[in-house]
Amino acid sequence: MYYKFSGFSQKLTGSGLASVYSPQGLRPGVPAEAPAMVFATPTKLVSEAGPALEYLGANRVPDLQRLFQISDGTPVHLKRGVPDRLLYRTTMALTVGGALYCLVALYIAANPSKK
Fold it and tell me: Which residues are CB-neighbours of 70 under 8 A, at least 6 positions away?
């Protein structure tokens, strides 16, 4: 005995072999023609592209390695100066403010007004 989900009664119902292997919503058969290829253009290798694909930026990795390896007692997350300090202090202020806001909301929820 084969079972199939009935869309009308929303239950499993007994079914024959042919209807079990033809699920609802799927069309039987094979498409008449193959779909068109989306990426049909040939691919160029980097060596074939020529000088048009050169990297235009400078390699800053050695400079940053020198900066971060200086032993001056400054934490790594503050090594780059004012932008790092500004980001760090903003993050700490938002964290402390959020924690205080959570405590105030918890206090208000724990002590409802008596009206």
Answer: 79
pTM to 2 decimals? 0.46
For the CA atoms of 18, 21, 22, 23, the dihedral, rounded to the nearest 10 degrees, stands at: 130
Cβ-Cβ contacts under 8 Å for 2 (sequence gap 6 or more): 14, 15, 16, 17, 19, 20
Tokens coding 100: 């205080």
pLDDT in tens, 55-90: 667 888 999 999 999 999 999 999 999 999 999 999
With beta carbons less than 8 A apart as the criterion, state whether 68 and 61 touch. Answer: no
**Cα–chain center distance at 105:** 31
